[in-house]
Design goal:
five-stranded mixed β-sheet; ten-stranded mixed β-sheet; single chain; 324 residues
C-alpha cells in the first residue's frame, strides 16, 4: 500500500514532467524560413526553436537537404494551422542535369543510368504539356512516404527493394526559365499541389526525352501564402537576435492566421469568443448566415480565437487558440 510519501513523490514527478514539457517561451506565429542547403528540415526547425526559445514548433512541408528556400515554421498556437499551409499550392525553381539518372533522382545519389544524348529546348517545350494538369507520378524511392509503417528512404538506405505505387498529383504550371546551349542542363519552374515530387518530374522527363535526368539544384519559392518576400535566413535570424533580442525576433513573425489566407474570417463578440473557447458552437448572425458552410475562423478584437466548420448556421469549433 502506498503511503503519503509515495503519493507526494508521484505528484512531484508529474509536476517535474509538466515543467519539462512546458520548457521554453509561449511564442505564437509563423516564421518564413529560407532554409539553407545541407540542412534537413528537422535541423532547421530545431535551430529556429532554439533561437526563439519556443515551447512548441513545427514546419509545413519537408524540404530535402539538397534544397533551399521556403520552409514555413509554426511557433506555439500557429502549429494548429500547419495543415492549411501543407495543403496549399507550392512553387519551385529547379535545375535538371541531363545525361544521367540517379537512385535518389537528385545529385546526392549514385548514378544508375547514363546517355550521350542531350535535349534541345524545343524537345523539352514539346514535352511540358504531358507534365501539366493532373498526372500520374511514382514518388522517388528516397522519399518520406511510409511503406508498411517505415519511411521509404530508410528502407532504400538499408538496401531493401522499394516499390511505390503511382498516385495522382496536380501540376498547375511548368515552364522553362533557362536552357544551356549545349543541352547539359535546364532550369524550370513548377507550380504544383500537395504530394508532387519535383525530383520525379526530372526523372520522368529525362526518360521521356531518352536522355535521363536528375535534379542538381532545387529551390522552393512559395508554400501556400508564404513567399520569398516574407522569408528570412538563419544568419539574419541570428543577427537579429543578437542585435535586437526578443523584440526584433517578434517583428519577424507573421500572425497565427497567416496560413488561413483562403479560409473566411468571422468577427465574433466577446461572449461568442468565450463560448468558442469552451468548445461550444455559436450561431452566425447576418443575412448570409444560412447559406454559409465549410471551414471558417473566428476573431475577436483582432485576435484569432477559434477555427471550425460552419454547419446549419452555426460555427462548430475544431481548434481553439490560446494566445495568452
Amino acid at each position: 500500500m502506498r503511503g503519503p510519501a509515495s503519493r507526494a513523490d508521484a505528484t512531484g514527478g508529474k509536476r517535474e514532467a509538466m515543467a519539462r514539457r512546458k520548457k521554453g517561451k509561449a511564442i505564437h506565429g509563423w516564421l518564413v524560413l529560407d532554409k539553407p542547403a545541407g540542412a534537413t528540415s528537422t535541423q532547421a526547425l530545431g535551430t529556429v526553436k532554439r533561437i526563439y526559445e519556443a515551447q512548441k514548433a513545427g514546419h509545413a512541408g519537408t524540404l530535402d537537404p539538397l534544397a533551399t528556400g521556403i520552409l514555413p515554421i509554426a511557433l506555439g498556437e500557429a502549429t494548429k494551422t500547419v495543415s492549411f499551409a501543407v495543403d496549399g499550392e507550392k512553387a519551385y525553381r529547379f535545375t535538371v542535369r541531363w545525361g544521367s539518372e540517379t537512385d535518389t533522382d537528385d545529385a546526392e545519389g549514385a548514378v544508375t543510368a547514363t546517355s550521350e544524348r542531350r535535349p534541345a529546348r524545343a524537345d523539352i517545350e514539346a514535352l511540358l504539356g504531358r507534365f501539366t494538369g493532373e498526372i500520374s507520378q511514382v514518388p522517388p524511392r528516397y522519399s518520406a512516404i511510409k511503406v508498411e509503417g517505415a519511411r521509404a528512404y530508410d528502407l532504400a538506405r538499408d538496401g531493401e527493394e522499394v516499390v511505390l505505387a503511382p498516385r495522382l498529383v496536380v501540376i498547375d504550371a511548368l515552364r522553362i526559365v533557362e536552357h544551356e546551349a549545349d543541352g547539359t542542363s535546364t532550369v524550370l519552374e513548377a507550380e504544383c499541389g500537395k504530394g508532387t515530387y519535383v525530383r520525379a518530374i526530372a526523372r520522368d522527363m529525362g526518360r521521356a526525352l531518352g536522355c535521363y535526368g536528375h535534379v542538381s539544384q532545387l529551390r522552393r519559392t512559395r508554400v501556400g501564402p508564404f513567399s520569398e518576400a516574407d522569408s528570412v535566413t538563419i544568419a539574419a535570424l541570428e543577427a537579429t537576435a543578437e542585435a535586437e533580442g526578443e523584440a526584433g525576433l517578434a517583428r519577424l513573425l507573421l500572425p497565427v492566421e497567416a496560413a488561413l489566407e483562403d479560409v473566411p474570417a468571422l468577427a465574433v463578440s466577446s461572449s461568442d469568443a468565450a463560448n468558442l473557447a469552451q468548445g461550444r458552437a455559436v450561431l452566425i448572425r447576418g443575412r448570409d448566415a444560412p447559406i454559409l458552410s465549410g471551414p471558417m475562423y473566428a476573431t475577436c478584437k483582432g485576435r484569432v480565437v477559434a477555427l471550425g466548420e460552419v454547419e446549419r448556421g452555426a460555427l462548430h469549433p475544431t481548434r481553439v487558440f490560446n494566445l495568452g
